[in-house]
Structures are given as C-alpha cells and as structure tokens.
Amino acid sequence: MSWITVTTFLPLVGVPVLLLGVRMRDDVARAIGLVVTLAVFIVSLGMLGRFDGSQAGFQLVEQATWVRSLGMQYLVGLDGVGLWMVLLTTFLFPLSVLASWKLEHNVRLFIAAMLVLETGVIGSFVALDLLLFFLFFEAILFPMYLIIGGWGGDRRVYAAVKFFLFTMAGSALLLVAILFLYFRSGSGGLTPTFDVRDLTAVAHALPATTARWLFLAFFVAFAVKVPIFPLHTWLPDAHTEAPTAGSVLLAGVLLKVGAFGLIRFNLALFPEASKYFATFVSVLAVIGIVYGAVVALIQTDLKRLVAYSSVSHLGFVVLGVFAFTTQGFTGGVLQMVNHGLSTGALFLLVGMVYERTHTRRLDEMGGLASVTPWLAGAFLFTAFASAGLPGLNNFVGEFLVVLGSFAANRWFGSIAAVAVVLAAIYLLWSYQRMAYGEVREEHRGLPDLSLREVAILAPILSLLLVFGVYPKLVTDRVELTTDTVLTAVSPDHPVESGPDPGTVAAGVAP
Amino acid sequence: MIRTPALDLFPVLPELILAGAGILALLYQALAPRPKVEGHLALALAGLAAAAGASIALWDRTGDPTVLAGAIQADKFAVVARLVILAVAAVGLLYGAHYYDRSGDEARGEFYPLVLFATMGMTLITAAADLIVTFLALEILSLSLYVLTGLSRRGQATEASMKYFLLGAFSSAFFLYGVAMAYGATGTTRIPAVAHALAGQTGSQALALTAFGFLAIGFGFKVSAVPFHMWTPDVYQGAPTPVTAFMAAATKVAAFGALIRVLDVSFHPLAWSWEPVIWVVAALSVIVGSVLAIAQSDVKRMLAYSSVAHAGFILTGLTSSNQDGIRAALFYLIAYAVMTLGSFGVVMLVSARGEEQTSLASYAGLGRRQPLLAGLMALFLLSLAGIPPTAGFIAKVGVFGAAIRAGHWPLVLIGVLSSVVAAFFYLRVIVLMYMQEPAGEQLEDRAVLPRAALAIPAALTLVLGVFPQIVLGVLDKASVLRW
Fold first, then answer.
1. What is the mean pLDDT of chain A?
2. Predicted ipTM > 0.95
C-alpha cells in the first residue's frame, strides 16, 4: 500500500464534495471534515506501524516521473523527523475540526480549506523532490490565508495579507536556490534532478561561498515560517486574528514546516555553511527566546500572549538544532512535537475561554476557576506543560536543548535557561489573572466543558503527559535521522556526553 | 525563363479557411435579411474548427520547412501557436456573442468577421518566414483590432481605439523601418536567410543591430513590454471586455510567436548582443507592471498592468536563446492565454450591462453574492500570481529555470521578488471578494452559457498545473525551430 500517498491526498477526497454541495447543511460539512481527518489520522497510524526506527535513511519511498520536461518527480518518503511531523499534523487536524464546531458562516468552504491545508502540510513533510516540496510549501499559503482572513477576528484581513506576503517573500528566494541547485546537478552531462538524496552530494561539492549564499536563500524562507527573530512580526497578528483552528494549526503544524525545512534542507544540503552560520543563527534564536518571553510577559491579550510564547519556544527548537550536539538536536526535534501539542492545546483552551467570555483580554476575565473549574484546570495543566514542568512533555525537550547548547556555547545555554523561568512567570501569571480573583458579573453561570470539548482536550492533554514521561516514543524513531544529519554537519559532534532522553524523563517522573 | 515556385497551399490552409470564413461572415451580415447572433456564431466557430483541423493536419508534415517561396514556415511551432490562437478566438467569440446580446447594442454583426480576420493575421504572423509577411500579418491583425476596440457605443471605447491606432501605426512604422534595415544589412528579408547572412559576416554589425532595435520596438509595442506599454491600460480598459480578453490573450501569443522566430532564428547569430537588451526589457516589464498594478482601482487596468508584467516573465524565459527558453515561453503563453481568458470572462460577467462595474469596489462581497464566479476568479488570480497547483506556477518555474540555466539568475531574482509584489494586488481582489461586505445593489448577469464557457479555462488552469507534461510533451517537439 502506498502509505504516504494515501495519507497525503486522502484529505482532498472531501474537497469536491464540499465545494459542489451548494445546499449542504452545515452539520454535514462538519461531519465530512471530521470523518476525513480522522480517517487520515488512522491511515497515518498505519504508517507509524510500518516505519522501522532501526533503519537509517528514507523509508516507504514512492517514486514516479511527473513532469519529465521539467525534471520533476513525484518522490516522497519519510525519515524519523518527518514521521513525527506527519503524525502531529494528522493528530491536530481532527481536533481543529472539532474545535471549529461552533463556526457559523460558510462552514463548507472552511472545512474545504482545512482539508486542502492538511494535504499541503503533509506533502511538505514527505516530499523528497525539492520542487515538489516547494509546490506543497506554497500550496499551504492560500488555504491558511483564507482561514485567517475569512473567519478571523477584527483585523483579520490585515493579518492574513501580512501572513501571505511574508511567507511568499521568503519563499521567493527559495525557488531561485532550488532551480540553481537543479541546474548545478546537471553539469558535467548528468541528468539534472530535484531529488534531495542526489542533490546532497551535489550541494556538498559546491564552493563554500556558493553554498553559503544558497544556505541563506533557504534559511530566509524557513526563518520566516519558524519564525526566527526578526522575521517573526507576522506571527502575533496571524495567531491572534485567526480563528481557533487556524491558530492551533499555525502553531502546531505550520511553524514546524519551517523548523523541519531547516533540518531537512539547510543542515543536510549545506553542512559547512550551517556550521559557518551556526553562531549567527543561535544568536537570533536566543534573542527570539528572550524577546518572545519578555513580550509575552506584558501582554494583556491572552491569545497574543500565547502567540509570543510560540516565538520563544520555537527559539528553543532552532537553538537546539544549531548546537550540533546530539542532545541539543534531539531536544530540538522533541520540542517541535511538544510545542505543537502544548501550544496547540493552549490555543484550543483560549478559544474555549473566548467562546464563553467573548473576550481575550485578561483584565476582563477573572474567577473562572470557580465558574468553570474543569476548563481552568485544563488550562493550568497545559500551562504547566508549556512552562516546562518536569513530568510533562516540554520539560524533556527544553532540558535537552539547554544541555546541548550549553555544551556548544555556555552563554546561549545559560540565557535559554533563564527564559524557561520567564515562561513559568508569564503562563502562571496569566492563569492567575484569568482564573482567580473576583468573578465578573456577566461571567456567572458560564457552562463548564461540554462533551465535545472534553473529546478535544482529553487526547491532547494525555499526550502531554505521555510524552513527558516516555519521550523515547519519539526519540527512538528520530535517533538515526539525528545521527545522519549531525554526522554530515560535524563528524566529531559529542555523542555520549550526557543523559539520554529516557533517563531525563525517568529521573524526574513521579 | 521565370521559374514559378511549386504552389503548395496546404501550409497556409488554416489562413485561407479563416479568410474565407471572414468573407462569408461579411456576406451573411450584408445579405441575410435578419442576421442572427446564432448564425454568426455558428459560422465563425465552424471556420475556427476547420482552421484548427487544417493546422493539426500540418503537424506531421515533413519535407522542406520553408514553403511558398520562402514566405511561410511550416513547422510544429507554427502548428502549436495556431491552435492556441484559434482556441482563444473561439472563447472570445463566445464571450462576444453574449456581450453584444446583453448590451442591447444592435446585433454588431461586424464583430464576427473582424475577429476572424484578426485571428487570421495572428496565425499568419506565427508562421511567417519572411519579415515582409510578418509585417503584412501584423497589419492585418492590428487593423482588425483597432476597429474591434472601438466596437461599442461608449465614448471610452472610441478613445481607446483612437489611441491604439495612433500608437500602433507608429510602432508599425518602426517595425517596417527595421525590416528595411535588416534588408540593408543582409540583403534579404527572409528570416532564416538573415541568420545565414549574419553568421557569415565578420565586419561591423551596427546596421544589423539597429535593425534588431527597430524590430524589437515594434514587437515590444505588440507584446506590451516596458517602455512600450503605455497604450495597454487605456486600451484594455476602454475596449469591450470580450475584445480585451481576445486581444490580451491572442495578440500576446501571436506577437511572441513572431518575436521568437526573429530572436532565435534571424538574430540568433547575434544572441550575445540582444540577450542583454531582452534582459533589461524583461526586468523593467516585471517591475513596472507589478508595481503600477498596485495603484489601480479598476480591475481591467489592473489586469492590463499585470499583462505587462507577464510579458516580462515570458521575456525572462527568452533571455535563454535555446530550446529551453522557447519551450518555457510557449508554455507560459498557453498558461497566460488560459488565465487571461478566464479572468476577463469573469470581469465581463461581473461588469454587467454597459460595463459600469469594472471598478475593484464592485468585487466586494462577490464570494457571498456569486460564489461560483468568485471561486473561478480566485482560481485565475492565484494562477496569475503563480501559486501551485495551477498553470501559472509551472509556467513560472519553466521560464525561471530557463533563465537560470542561461546564467541570468539576477533577472530571476527580480522576477520572483516582483511576483511577491504582484501577489499583493491579486490578493487584494480575493480579499474584496471573500472578506468584505457587498456595497449596495449591483446589477447581476446570471447568464448560464458564458459560465459554462468559463469551465474550459478553469479546467485547463488546473490540468496544466497538475499534469503539465501533457502539453510539455508536445512543446518538446514544437520548440525546435527548423530552418
């Protein structure tokens, strides 16, 4: 069975039905969305079963000629990092559909946009042909743009256009670099190719200066997406204005496409340049970590606060990856998954709070712990996870990142460690302002979690715990990918100079 | 003794059919007691279909590619260009039939023969093997288009027609002067012979380069490349929308078809001299087209500036003077024709009777009022912006690839950055359609037939985006210029 192809294109099955069913009832549209995304999730679990963690290189590869004249292939495959990204995607989509159940207008179109988005995202994670990757990467833009601009908050149009233009401007250079590599691979009478595996050798043979320019072209495209300071300015707007599902998917999945691109392409294709720019990138990452955390501290808008915390958390991912140590790298990858889950959960919760109080302003909330204890409890739990409380998922990732980057550069590690404390402050403080204190008059008698909301939160919150206690679930399948990438970048990276993720978690788990 | 060339008219059969159909259409209008739209449409479409059949029959033609005493080039390139132009003309006719029916104008019987004559000029110019024939064809198509532009009661159309005529006549003069100079430099006006002569020359090539410059001005005007684009927004806006659709799509294919022959055959020996010129014109076109389009408040003007930018993208592909470039340019032309027909088709339906609704503001809330039209427009705009999986994306990859291969990566950089600027104004229309409320009452055109006609460009936009190999495989053969 072509696992990857089915997983990638299964979401599209629902699209024609939704677009053509002009008189479709909203409930039917929602049901279609839920059924399709759940089906995709189940298929992707099958993929997890087929994936062999003890094998290096790309697995479940499928290859077919697509556009012969342009040298384009349909070439997909998975490594450990890609596998977890796909699973994260397929896991978050049904939850996002469920979270948008209350959405009123144009439900059909909304669900259709979600499904197209899912194909685009999965495709970006599995594509092994550079041009195919670019195609999926660009195809993400429009549905996300529609979701933000069509169903977002008051300043949605501004946010949507900003999102679109930032990302597109970033990827413009990417296309030039991809085409350059393609023709480079054809020099010397060879057939030019977009195949990442073949291009690795081609790219490694490039003169250092050329490779560095190409690295920068790739880097800008992905840095916008991650986002890395100072290219992050689109993110708070997009996150804040997007509807709940949009924010969840932006934070949970779309930002990962950027981090994933850095690992898959920047590091693998241009190891020398990656090393050359490592300090530069790490400095930006550290600035992002601290900046995101400090700005989150002063937010009065709950959603914006979570958005800035994303900037901070993604800084950890980049810092870990560019430390070029096993711990740092593993931590970075782990943090990609964890951030998707915990920030995704936070956005879901913010959405639920908003649906009740119709405000995102912290000073207009208060006392929710007594009105809606379960909702507040779930928020507290997620905030703990996000702040890196031992035993919950973010702890392991952040710990490894700090450890790994400390080994590479003492200063970066120390500053990053301080930011972990800042995260605890802004998250707990926001919880305090939201949940404790006077209950506002208009908030009395708000309903607590509904069955649908429990169905959304239960799976994601349990994963926060599972990945906190047993991160080996993730790391086992990522290990070999980590080694492959790191060996290319720095053959002498410190391998066994610290505890492995299993022991980190085991040492502190209750 | 005078030797008469063997008269093989088969290679110009498409043109003969079109001319015949045009004359029949004139007679029908003049002699039929009550000429009907249906009659005109049937006659014209039959003519186009017959011409298409004759073109396809030429595909497998072997033997001497230059026929009719060196006047006509019978190669696969001409076949493909003809077919595209004929298809565009067919859709243009369908639009026009609806448009004139709706506007309540008197039957406008002259529309059909004029389109047929213009089409004939366009197909002829792509097959011309002699600069004199190129000029002749240029005049046939231009004169028909000048009249078509003014074919409406609105004063704006008359003004556009006049402007188009004056500037067009000027550019024709440049072109003719260029032909004369090419003759002076090489002693011939035959496109392949010019190349042979230039390849054999060793002395100064100043005259040949001047000739190229003048010819380039003539073509630059027709393809609306900067700095010869000034007429484009006024004419596109003023002309009746179906005429704009036809003119925008088909003229570009025709003029580029001829330009490719002049660049890559006649002046191929001087490629090192003209590549920088095309480079600069391409860069200026994409920049100026994209930037000025932002400032427009009328959708037809916006699309006009976007067509300037697209001319720049096609020229970007042509900076590589080899088969790659030709193939990329041809694919781009096909994609461009499809997207342009589609978007102007939507514009026609939105603008309603009398064309008062072409301002961008009339697109506000279109997604709510007319979901189908808005969806189609969004598709065409995304394709124009080059977002996958549409034809526009593959087309851009093609031309950028060709240019990078030729080493022109700074030009590609300019191109991709301009596409980002361009994305902004395409997006603005989408924002209006989907994210804003309708402003006041709007006249609505709910005709079914033109909507059905829109299905063709819509389907092609997607098919060319997802399975471009279908067309690229054909273009692999068509992009070999035999001479």
1. 85
2. no
